[in-house]
Amino acid sequence: MSDNLPLEMQLEIMKKLPIKSLIQFRSVSKTWKHQIDSSDFISHYNGNNNLLITYDPPGYLNPYYVSIADDHTFPQHKVSLNVPLLVNLLECCCIIGSSHGLLCLGGFYYHITSDCYPSRVDMVVLWNMSIRKTIPIVVPNKEVGMTYGSVVGFGVCRATTDPKIVKIRYIANESDLDSITSIPWQVEVFTLSTGAWRSLCNNLPRKSIKFDGLQVVVDGFLYWRGTDRINAIGGYTFYNMIMSFDVTTEEFREVNLPRSLARESVENLSMSKLRESLVVLHHGVQSDNPIFDVWMMEDGVSKLFTKLFTINVNIPDEVYVRGFRKGGEPIIEVFKDDIPIYNLGVYDPYSKHVDFLEINGMCAYSVFPYMETLLMLDQPNLEVYNETETIRILDDLASEVDRLQLVFALASPILRQLKISMNWVDEVAYLICND
What we know:
The structure is a single chain. With 435 residues, the chain is mostly beta strands. 12% of the residues lie in helices and 46% in strands. The protein has eight helices and 28 strands. The protein has a four-stranded antiparallel beta sheet with strand order 3-2-1-24, with no helix packed on it. Strands 4-5-6-7 form a four-stranded antiparallel beta sheet. It has a four-stranded antiparallel beta sheet with strand order 8-9-10-11, with no helix packed on it. The longest helix has 9 residues, at 425-433.
């Protein structure tokens, strides 16, 4: 780039470049590195639109993570992502959600206590897939036993681009609703900029509401499918509803569903994001073929829902809707009983034709739209956050790397030693060199 151009013009040009080029530019010029690493540049940079698809391929133990460019070339540009070390170490790993190009995954680690007993530590890992950076965060008060359940949500604040994690406890069994007056640690929020958890005390969800673990993020709001358990004569009555959480104001709000959906079996309902709107999908059967009615939530205080269209694939196989492309086309999963393989395809609502993506798996797919981002570029690599302190472990990692084995030591409260295969040496070397 010419030195004759003013710096402001250079920065405007760089904001339109792909992330790979920006990472290279950081090594060319100290001025460019300083500007690219600035919070202003990071918050105003928006990269290409992609779809993240996770699935279990035949013959492999770990899931695959594939990124597909969601543009006119779809689905030609597929890239298999290198899954970070901290993600692969998670037990019972699941994707919590995606927001502003960051992926949040949840699970737990085991560490050995001084009494030589394994102890569980609940964790979430924030992963920026575009710049290969991960941040692990300890989730406190997660184990709830038989009395309580919990869900974890993730989103990025629209005003500050600060990633936040919210943990919600709810009463699991209806038999305990009358006897429990308050829920300990009912709502706790972690903010990455502070590196700490704090409890919310006002505007908390009613104790009669039971949360579903799957969330959807739309325009700075987190949405969970919920069940309101009303004590009536002869027992409890159950109503489907939605709970929303504003990541910016940290306020909860109840969203009522249309009457036909509020009394429907909860197994027949799911949520997704269509463009920049929340949609609820109602699964039914017509002429022995699966169908999905797509209801979109309208803007405004009333939170009205409008039925947009019906997905009718016109095949008798098992069909699930896993998400939508940027243009609104549904992405569906088809499972044939005679061939134990799941196939992923894009459904055309007009022709009712399915274009399969040549991605076949042994288990269900997850589909998350995301935009390339520089968020967390200014965060240290491999920094572990817990509820009381921040522990830096990168220097310890550097001294432990060799070509035969890697001993990965995580400081308290995850104190443990793990033997990792040589496949992870390159991952750690990359993190060390790009700190």
